[in-house]
Specification:
30% of the residues lie in helices and 32% in strands. The protein is an alpha+beta fold. It has a single domain (9-169), classed as 2-Layer Sandwich (Alpha-Beta Plaits), CATH 3.30.70. Strands 1, 2, 3, 4, 5, 8 and 9 form a 7-stranded antiparallel sheet that branches. Strands 6-7 form a two-stranded antiparallel sheet. The longest helix is centred in the C-terminal third of the chain and has 18 residues, at 142-159.
Length: 172
C-alpha cells in the first residue's frame, strides 16, 4: 500500500502538533472508534499535514482510555493553523469547540519545532505502535544541543529497529 507516496527516509517536516487526553471510562472501544471515524474527515484534510497517528491506551490506574494525536506538518505556520483550527473553528456539536467537548478530560496539546524526523520503514507496513515521551530540558541553547544529538538519536533508533523517530522541541 502506498500512502501519499511517502517511503522510508528523512521526513520533510518543520513542525508538529500533539494532543493527549482521557475519555470517560464507560466508553467502549467501538464507541471510541466510531467517534474517531466520524471526526476524521474534517481533521485529516489540513494544509501541510504529513503524518497522523492516533495513540490509544487504557490507563488501569485511572480506569479510562487515554487518546490523542501525533501530527507532523511541513511548516510551523501549518502546525499553528491546525492548532487554531481545532481550538477556535472546529465544532462537531453546535456551539461546542472541539477541545471543549465535555467527554474530553485533561487535554494537553502542544505545537513543536521538529529537529529531525525519519521513517525507517514504509508507513503502511510497520507503523502500528506509538511511544511518545516528553522531557523537560533546560540549556542555554537547547535547540542547538538537540540538533547536534539528532544524528545519534536517528542512528540509535534505526539500530533498534524502530519504524520512525521524531525529535521535537517546544518553545517556552
Amino acid at each position: 500500500m502506498d500512502i501519499c507516496g511517502y517511503g522510508p527516509g528523512p521526513i520533510a517536516a518543520e513542525a508538529a502538533f500533539t494532543s493527549d487526553f482521557a475519555l470517560p471510562g464507560d466508553l467502549r472501544v467501538r464507541q471510541i472508534a466510531d467517534l474517531v471515524e466520524a471526526d476524521r474527515p474534517a481533521m485529516d484534510a489540513r494544509p501541510g499535514m504529513r503524518h497522523k497517528y492516533l495513540p490509544w491506551r487504557f490507563d488501569p490506574v485511572a480506569g479510562a482510555p487515554q487518546v490523542g494525536g501525533r501530527y507532523l506538518f511541513d511548516t510551523w505556520s501549518n502546525a499553528l493553523g491546525y492548532e487554531w483550527f481545532t481550538a477556535e473553528d472546529l465544532e462537531f456539536e453546535p456551539g461546542v469547540k472541539f477541545w471543549d467537548r465535555p467527554f474530553f478530560h485533561g487535554v494537553a496539546r502542544h505545537v513543536w519545532h521538529v529537529i529531525g524526523a525519519h521513517d525507517f520503514t514504509a508507513l503502511a507496513s510497520t507503523h502500528h505502535v506509538n511511544r511518545f515521551e516528553r522531557w523537560a530540558y533546560q540549556a542555554r541553547d537547547e535547540e542547538v544541543a538537540l540538533r547536534r544529538a539528532w544524528p545519534l538519536i536517528r542512528e540509535a533508533a534505526e539500530e533498534a529497529g524502530l519504524s520512525s523517530a521524531w525529535l521535537m522541541v517546544r518553545p517556552v
